[in-house]
Amino acid sequence: MALVDRDGVVVAANDSLGALLGTEAGALRERAAADLVDLASDGRTWHAYREVLRGRRSCFRCIRRLKHGDGRSLWAEVTVSPVPDGRRVLLSIADISDRRELQARLRHLQMHDPVTRLPNRTLFFERLAAALEEPAAPWEPHESHESYGYARTGRIGLCYLDLDGFKAINDTLGHRVGDRLLAAVARRLTECAAGDGHARGGGHLVARLGGDEFAILVEDSTGTEQLADLARSVLDALQEPFDLAGQRLSVSASIGVVERSGRGTTATALMQAADTTLYWAKADGKARWTLFDPERNAHRMTRQALSSTLRPAVEGGEFVLEYQPLVDLADGAVRGVEALVRWHHPQFGPLPPNRFIGIAEEDGSIVELGRWILRTACRQARQWQKDHPRERPLFVSVNVAVRQVWDSDLVADVAGILAETGLAPHLLQLELTESAVMGSAGRPLQALQALSDMGVRIAIDDFGTGYSNLAYLSRLPVSVLKLDGSFVRGFQDEEHANAADELIVEALVQLAHRLGLTVTAECVETAGQASRLRRIGCDTGQGWLYSRAVAPERITELIGAEPLPA
């Protein structure tokens, strides 16, 4: 302790203060108290100290790092408070080094993972937040990369990874072996981060975020190439087997890589991008790194937006049907139409089926959507029949997803809709993909058989692209094969004809006819194609040569009109 007058000069000091500062207590008299404990080092502390001396503040306390008399550094808590006589203040200094050391140890335990000794999730996000808040200088001189200097770039990078198949190791070999593996992985990640010649002064932060998830934070990154090199080095390092107490283990990792400007980026946005990219790496086959792609992410976000609004859109009447003619190749007459659904999305505009049918199949809304398509198409076909009673009625072909067979009573739905609309069963054709039909067994096969028995025609769509089992084909209740357009494109004209494609189509047509099936060729775009298909013996054509998918009013104009060019 020391007594200090109102001018800040030491009046008296005890022996403990002298010993702490490495001098005699008497030698401290007449010295400025602020100099003894460095109170003038910053303006805020100096102002508070002066306020106590002037009697405008009752007490002031701060923490200072001092040099002990024996030369070691110590942490001291400095307190300045008035004494009752009103003419002096009391300066008290307490050595709190042990307390600070304990706090540091407790913080280290709190901020580090006990298994790998790496920084944990809490410390990682603390460092990430600090890196994003740190202002970036436009340019700073720096040493060459050879001397491990770094430039402030204002950019930030992240390698976010997890181990492929780690759960299986834990389940089969136990958590003790799993923990040893995690610790060994942590050491290799730390070596990879330390080996990056572009690392800033403190090096890259390697953290375990939980489970088998790790992150390497790259502050002031030099660009995506630096992150790509780091990700590649991590994959190479982890491919080397691990020898753990007699256990030789091999492991791989999937890594999501994100690199961007720190300006305008939040920790949440960065981690969302990293998590998405890690998912892509897993989905693309694991044991690889994948760089964040804004375009791919925008597609994913659009997909999520479509998924969340698909069910309400069915109820809200946002879907419409267009129809593409199915033309008899022999005489050019329109025999039927295929119903094709379109989504008039209020945000994204008109969407073709390939933008949302897959989503509908995943979330199950295809059942409700498919029921709407079937009812609308049958009602329209029946309306054409009523409006043109003297003309040969058009059949309507409707695509059916496998999930509609599994998740709903398709037979009951079809029977109910035909009864409701008054459409004859033979004027309805249901199209299923080749892989779906060929894999049919049990309930799906029973449903197809019941529909066929009802008089509904079953067609295999995109035939020739799946895993055709021709022996099985003869036992299916199928009446139509729709040849995939890839075959038809092979002979658009005589000059550039593909003889192999023509032979394949001819063989398929002959096979179908011998099995009592009719054949429809998709993607007919030229008169040359139509001519060759007719000569081969194909029954029906569909494609832009005749018409694109159009509104029902345009189909009405074709009924009873002159035949389309055959």
From TrEMBL:
<dbReference type="Pfam" id="PF00990">
    <property type="entry name" value="GGDEF"/>
</dbReference>
<dbReference type="Pfam" id="PF00563">
    <property type="entry name" value="EAL"/>
</dbReference>
<dbReference type="InterPro" id="IPR013656">
    <property type="entry name" value="PAS_4"/>
</dbReference>
<dbReference type="InterPro" id="IPR029787">
    <property type="entry name" value="Nucleotide_cyclase"/>
</dbReference>
<dbReference type="Pfam" id="PF08448">
    <property type="entry name" value="PAS_4"/>
</dbReference>
<dbReference type="InterPro" id="IPR052155">
    <property type="entry name" value="Biofilm_reg_signaling"/>
</dbReference>
<protein>
    <submittedName>
        <fullName>Bifunctional diguanylate cyclase/phosphodiesterase</fullName>
    </submittedName>
</protein>
<dbReference type="InterPro" id="IPR035965">
    <property type="entry name" value="PAS-like_dom_sf"/>
</dbReference>
<feature type="domain" description="EAL">
    <location>
        <begin position="303"/>
        <end position="563"/>
    </location>
</feature>
<feature type="domain" description="GGDEF">
    <location>
        <begin position="154"/>
        <end position="294"/>
    </location>
</feature>
<dbReference type="InterPro" id="IPR001633">
    <property type="entry name" value="EAL_dom"/>
</dbReference>
<dbReference type="InterPro" id="IPR000160">
    <property type="entry name" value="GGDEF_dom"/>
</dbReference>
<dbReference type="InterPro" id="IPR000014">
    <property type="entry name" value="PAS"/>
</dbReference>
<dbReference type="InterPro" id="IPR035919">
    <property type="entry name" value="EAL_sf"/>
</dbReference>
<dbReference type="InterPro" id="IPR043128">
    <property type="entry name" value="Rev_trsase/Diguanyl_cyclase"/>
</dbReference>
